[in-house]
Amino acid sequence: MNVLEQLKRLDDMPERYKTMEKSELEARARSVKERLGRRLFIPGHHYQKDEVIQFADATGDSLQLAQLAAKNDEAEYIVFCGVHFMAETADILTGEEQAVILPDLRAGCSMADMADLFQVERAWAALTDRFGETILPLVYVNSTAAIKAFVGRHGGATVTSSNAKNIVQWAFSQKERVFFLPDQHLGRNTAYALGVSLDEMAVWDPHEESLQCTGAIDNVKVILWKGHCSVHENFTVRQIEQIRRTKPGMNIIVHPECSWEVVQQADYAGSTKYIIETIRNAPPGSRWAVGTEMNLVNRLKYEHPDKEIISLNPYMCPCLTMNRIDLPHFVWALESLSEGIVVNRITVLNEVAFEAKRALDRMLALA
Ligand code: 13P
Ligand code: SF4
């Protein structure tokens, strides 16, 4: 079976939802929300499409969504508008009787897929062989539950883009070295901001099973997993130079999943929440080139007509997997619930959830 056929098999949505008018889909979504009331909770990530985010009970960045899931003990159904790793996190942090639903199972994350447990176990064996007991693993929430469980098992914590600095600082109070998975860019940007030089960082390549480093290996403080976000890697220093040339005075703000070079050249860098708040609090007439996902940039544009807002990349960067959650899938998931059928439930095995929760709880206690 080829990849397209496999993806098709993950999508059980009946054909009729595909041809429904937007207005009808919206009316149906409103009606189920009204019927289910507080039995239903809909969290939505900032990168979600407008057609879906309009129905969210709460929107947020990864940290806020994890905190909301941990707090909510009343909703029977949590229809998660985001990607698979976020729904897994919600399942881990909510009660057994609460069902977490991802409207389209194809909403994965290419970054999370860049580290599997087998690769991580092999890397850990090689790294502990080389550095002994000096390493603490940290994992970006953009990862599978299995990797979070690995990190929980080894005393580490999860991080998000809004708390990475705090958690890396905490990690250095525990051990001499940090093993940061799976986003090398967030790891590098965070460690650099804390005073770790590039020479003190090494990159673990899971395919070559090798450690690459520009400095002396014994001085390495941070080991970065060679993973990245396929959306944010599309922002480049060239684009920044182009903006500086053609639109002098424009502010450049980027997400820390962008490369170190891009973050260094930008004026500001931070999580989706930070980007939203910085632009919201900026004076009218201010001008912004934004290096993050396109649904969020478009939303910022029309929410702030008094400011000039453009994408740093003129060809824009959608997250294709975030965009999988569309109105037809969302309404299908809701209507199934109102008929008592739970479709696309995300369930993390108890033993994995238990250890992953240790890593998440450490982060939530520190955040
Ligand atoms: P934040 O919302 O934490 O900034 O994360 C961005 C992201 O890539 C989510 O997939
Ligand atoms: Fe994954 Fe990047 Fe999409 Fe976030 S934006 S879900 S990290 S691919």
UniProtKB/TrEMBL annotation:
Provide the binding site for iminosuccinate: H45, S62, Y140, V141, N142, S161, H255, P256, E257, T272
InterPro entries the UniProt entry points to = NadA (IPR003473), NadA_sf (IPR036094), Quinolinate_synth_A_type3 (IPR023515)
What EC number(s) does this enzyme carry?
Answer: 2.5.1.72
Enumerate the UniProt keywords alphabetically.
4Fe-4S, Cytoplasm, Iron, Iron-sulfur, Metal-binding, Pyridine nucleotide biosynthesis, Transferase
- What catalytic activity is recorded? iminosuccinate + dihydroxyacetone phosphate = quinolinate + phosphate + 2 H2O + H(+)
Question: Which metal ions or organic cofactors does this protein require, according to UniProt?
Answer: [4Fe-4S] cluster
Listed HAMAP family = NadA_type3
Q: What family is this? A: Belongs to the quinolinate synthase family. Type 3 subfamily.
Stated role: Catalyzes the condensation of iminoaspartate with dihydroxyacetone phosphate to form quinolinate.
Record protein name field: Quinolinate synthase
The uppermost taxa in this organism's lineage are: Bacteria, Bacillati, Bacillota, Bacilli, Bacillales
